[in-house]
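Worked problem 6 (solution included).
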Amino acid sequence: MKRIALQAGVVSVLTGALALSGCAGGYDQASRAGTYEGPPTAVGEGEARSFVTLDAQGEPIALGVRLSPAALTGLPSDVGHAGPAVEYRLDLPPEAAATGYDHVTVDWNPHGHFPPGVYDVAHFDFHFYLIDDEARNRITGEGEDRARASKAPATEFMPAGYVLPEGTDEPRMGAHAIHPGAPEFNQQPFTKTFIYGFYDGEMVFVEPMVTKAFLETRADVREAIPLPERYHRTAYYPTEYRVGYDAETEAHVVVLEGLVRH
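Solution. The predicted structure is:
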């Protein structure tokens, strides 16, 4: 875990505490605001880290992934078109424990994936999992588990405007719900999108998907996320997501923002 930034208000509080007492002993009691990073995972010729940003009360307000620029180079290219993605697992920092997420994976798809003509370009899938590795390993999508892996949620648990097409279930993931109104399904090229994942009718991950080419532009965008009426698990769910480049940390970032506890 690495703390990398302090908000301006926190700096002011710390400065005042030092002036009054000659030490920062009261700082941590006054505010927990800041951004904390998880341990690095090698990706390409660089690295990826998860991070969480807390407000002064210690509540999470953002959860994301940083990719160093070198992470976009030296990536494996010999994965078959029909083969699985290359998965890079990221641990979360201890400060993210309250978010309700267990871990993150960055999945590299050098040739994209289903459906053809939509997502068959080089891109990353950023899975923020609400379940642990043991639960993921039980998702096989085979035999009796096939029905659970492809089961759609009840209407109130499906995000507004999303559908769960047949054939989107994957081992150790579950089924992928898409938004037919997204640009890539309406004669526009795929650059970024947001996916919800379900297993046995319950949400198990949220997933921004971003092309390598879009990350390389260093564009910085935020988009609102359609939401369901209800959630099965208590967690901090995003109301928007950001894809951008953080000049201060010199990293590409993919971030769940506007977190609200449900």
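Discussion: DSSP finds five helices and 16 strands in the chain.
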